[in-house]
């Protein structure tokens, strides 16, 4: 309830900022231009889609206020930059008032940031008076319990909708992840715009090759095990399997269409996942998400398998550029893939991501194990 209210308020602040900026820019009552309407609409939609991916609506309880405000500011700047890219693509930049755009960006950003700051300070003041607390019972050795209490506020995370105490080491702190978050959104937006003609051609080819939808949609698990809908171009004929059963594609699989086989070998079927990245559900680089049935199968057989969900899943990853992609018919194959995934998580850096992206671009699109 609170998160939905916060999202609606942020969208209203975007609209209010645009209207106030227009009033400041034009002292006479002139109606908003089509370009101003378009940018306000873009910003509203992007705020609703992208802010959750930056963790703007996560609980701020126990978090450092400056760190959270910087996160909101970074999210807002990415939204504005993405809206500018969209306006440029639609050839609307010439009709855009630079002064109005600057006023709108500052006013909307200030309204969003100041409101969240006031809410956080008010809630902290209420808690200091003994209200708005959650009672937690810790059973165990007194020494360990005291140590646990000292870190409780900073280790509380949301896992599959449940407040959970995270005792595992995280690879990096939130400020270090900002370059990755910003890169993900900008790269995904640029990729979706640049690849739009490819999307159209593939969509037509898929519809002509076999009856059925253009996109394949399936539930996968993201960071902290949160479910999300992953998107791919459909590469198989429409078929149905028994509940709880997923049959992996094999070489010369009759279900795979001719175009589908080409898309799978060249990873073109994965391109719609840039939408998942833009929505904040995935990253450009990270462990590949597996089918839920495979999660259930391997979580008890492969050591460290569930640790892959400490970060967002990715379109490409360290395991994939090292040749570990495609079907996993043996537990040993999955074990090796997980080792590469965990190595990536434990040794993550922004430049490690850039290395994987470059390897993917130059040699990672075509795979011998994909069919």
UniProtKB/TrEMBL annotation:
It is found in: Membrane. Keywords: Membrane, Transferase, Transmembrane, Transmembrane helix. InterPro entries: Bact_transf (IPR003362), EPS_sugar_tfrase (IPR017475). PANTHER family: COLANIC BIOSYNTHESIS UDP-GLUCOSE LIPID CARRIER TRANSFERASE, UNDECAPRENYL-PHOSPHATE N-ACETYLGALACTOSAMINYL 1-PHOSPHATE TRANSFERASE-RELATED. The keyword Transmembrane applies. NCBIfam families: EPS_sugtrans. This is Undecaprenyl-phosphate glucose phosphotransferase. It comes from the Bacteria. One of its GO terms (cellular component) is membrane. The chain crosses the membrane at residues 37-57, 69-88, 100-119, 186-206. It is a multi-pass membrane protein. Residues 180-363 form the Bacterial sugar transferase domain. Belongs to the bacterial sugar transferase family. The keyword Ion transport does not apply. GO terms for molecular function: phosphotransferase activity, for other substituted phosphate groups.
